[in-house]
UniProtKB/TrEMBL annotation:
Protein name: Peptide ABC transporter substrate-binding protein
Occurrences of domain Solute-binding protein family (ranges): 96-508
Statement: the UniProt record of this protein carries the keyword Nucleotidyltransferase: no
Region (Disordered): 501-521
Superkingdom of the organism of origin: Bacteria
PANTHER family: ABC TRANSPORTER PERIPLASMIC BINDING PROTEIN, PERIPLASMIC BINDING COMPONENT OF ABC TRANSPORTER
A GO biological-process term: peptide transport
Cellular component annotations (GO), alphabetically ordered: ATP-binding cassette (ABC) transporter complex; outer membrane-bounded periplasmic space
Keywords: Signal
Molecular function terms, GO-annotated: peptide transmembrane transporter activity
Matching InterPro entries: Peptide/Ni-bd, SBP_5, SBP_5_dom
Keyword tRNA processing attributed: no
Amino acid sequence: MAGALLGSIGFVFSGAAFGVYAIAQYGEPKYPPGFQHFDYVNPDAPRGGTLVLANPNRLTSFDKFNPFTMRGNPAPGLGLMFESLTTGSLDEVATVYGLLADDIQVAPDGLSATFHINPRARFSNGDPVTAEDVRFSFETLKSPQAAPQYSVYFGQIARAVVIDPLTIRFDFKARTREMPLLAGGIPVFSRKWGMKPDGTRIPFDQLAFQQPIGSGPYVIEHYDNGRTITYRRNPSYWGDRLPVRVGTYNYERINYKLYSDNIARLEAFKAGEYDVLVENIARSWVRRDIGKRFDSGELIKREFPHHNGSGMQGFFMNVRRPLFKDVRVRQALDLALDFEWLNRQLFFNQYKRTDSFFVNTELQAKGRPSEGELALLTPLRAQLDPAVFGEMTTQPDTDPPGSLRANLIKARQLLADAGWTYRDGALRNAKGEPFVFEILDDTGGGASMEPVAAAFARNLQKLGITANFRTVDYALIQKRLDAFEFDMTSVRMPDVQVPGTEQVSRFGSKSADEQGSDNLSGVKSPAVDKILQAVVSAQTREQLVDATHALDRVLMHGYYVVPHWYSAKHRVAYRNTLAYPATLPLYYTADDWVTSTWWFKPAAK
């Protein structure tokens, strides 16, 4: 979240405070004052029609309209209802432009930022958006009633101060270039959300199907049984003429239908039940996304390139479990995944191996540490594996001259060094306990991940390790992940173009003990904490790159994840009645791109 909020006109922490239309973490904004629209939209796109979509993630049902709390499963598409003071563009990084705010001032010392709210801004109930609403939203999200990641994301924002009805100032605990952008990205909702007729309030963490009151372009029209939900474009939406909104959100309605698994979802698409399929399974793209509607041209398949950092997808190990405490054990498990075989046999050679938490970007560490990295790492030498100061890790390779056998021999030695030896038909520790663990996945994803887990388990069995693959309902797996009740699980961390506070939530020691946090593996390292501080406090792009390289280097040498694979393309199948702009964005998710910038072609006359 936080990484997607960054950016605009380069600001410095000197001289007088000033008002601008946009702020940048580094450099200058692409779009000048007075710009009319983003380059990747069609300002003349027609409006109308109902876009029907399927599950945008592994969610198969929902039981609330509040996306900001930990308990329960939020309905898909709720982001259509909420806005923030600023918004980013999809063709630059670390840049945001005014949305609810029409003026931004960064203090000379960088310890506060002041936002003036556009007097035209309105909530869906017609009320004006006020500074009090912004403060209420901020304080609610930082409270224990909201999901814990928000208190981490916004933890360095000390307070929100209402200056007047349309002006709010955020004070920061530290001077970092990220803070003004984080403040601008706080989701804003009305103080009346959850208010009863008698003036009492439903606790925020108990809001379920109470209609959210946001300022976004859509409102909920109807829903059914936690399996379908329809959003209608607000006819009184306040922001249509804003440059950041021109050419966007062109559908009259957006309807989500949730299917029980990938097979049901695919068959429904081929039957014409919904309009767009974002395909994440290589085998399906080649073998299953076919049929008469594709042959006739009614359904179109296309791969769209992107420049996103691809994030980290892999089998995440829970190092809170004694079984995974030893880094040698974790490295041995990494050696047992044969990516080259998987890519040939299951993925039709469509993927590349992930070998970084910041793969496909300049933020990926390579080779030996640079001088800038060493300046951060050397004071931490006593806390770090000496290997961190050598060559960057590379993932095991089974293409000749490499082989799975050679990798398993190395893994066996690592396990022996960690006290695990093969006897009595299994790999056992000094107490005689066998090496057995569970790979947890949800039922919606099982169709794609089970063959991978089975191949992985076969290789582990050669070492005497038993890996049991288990699928459970999405709601249950989410509860287990929130409580860190798992051994190993398949997860993809969202990509970020400009690392920042979200990295603290993912890898910070404090987050390791907070249920519901993003630190699934349980990384708890004072050295990592120190490097994270360098990431969030970087004052130049060069400092950020050095700090992120150092972070990547330490995390990869920690072997917290058995990395999977990535692609630099979005695979999208869609109905031929849909159209999209001629200029593609650079940094985007396919689902959000479709909902925010595509449109229905006008009916032929």
